[in-house]
Design brief:
- It is a single chain.
- The chain has 89 residues and is of the alpha+beta class.
- 27% of the residues lie in helices and 46% in strands.
- It is built from two helices and six strands; from the N terminus they run ααββββββ.
- Strands 1, 2, 3, 4, 5 and 6 form a six-stranded antiparallel sheet that branches.
- A hairpin with a 2-residue loop joins strand 3 (56-65) and strand 4 (68-72).
- 12% of the residues are buried.
- The mean pLDDT is 84.
Length: 89
């Protein structure tokens, strides 16, 4: 029936879009990212390294709060337990 084909197509699309977090994080090292913290601050910068606890280092980091630039840093080190998400730009 058509619904079986539709369901199979949806599963196929979803399986090709899935990426394990470890693979995604390895792919974005060296790229510019946005990091949102649990306190509402956002940082942008070049992701230089991270560990299994999601502690990370950014170069050319900028700090934003509610979309407004607050501070520019050369390097920033962010503690992983505060990270809500990391997004590649």
């Amino acid at each position: 029936a058509w619904w079986k084909s539709w369901h199979q197509l949806q599963r196929s699309i979803m399986s090709t879009q899935k990426t394990k977090p470890e693979a995604f994080l390895k792919e974005i090292i060296g790229n510019t990212v946005i990091v949102k913290l649990s306190n509402g601050l956002e940082y942008t910068g070049k992701l230089t390294c991270l560990d299994s606890f999601m502690n990370l280092a950014l170069e050319e980091a900028e700090e934003y709060f509610e979309g407004e630039l607050k501070q520019k840093y050369g390097d920033a080190f962010l503690r992983g337990n505060n990270v809500l998400y990391i997004s590649a730009i």
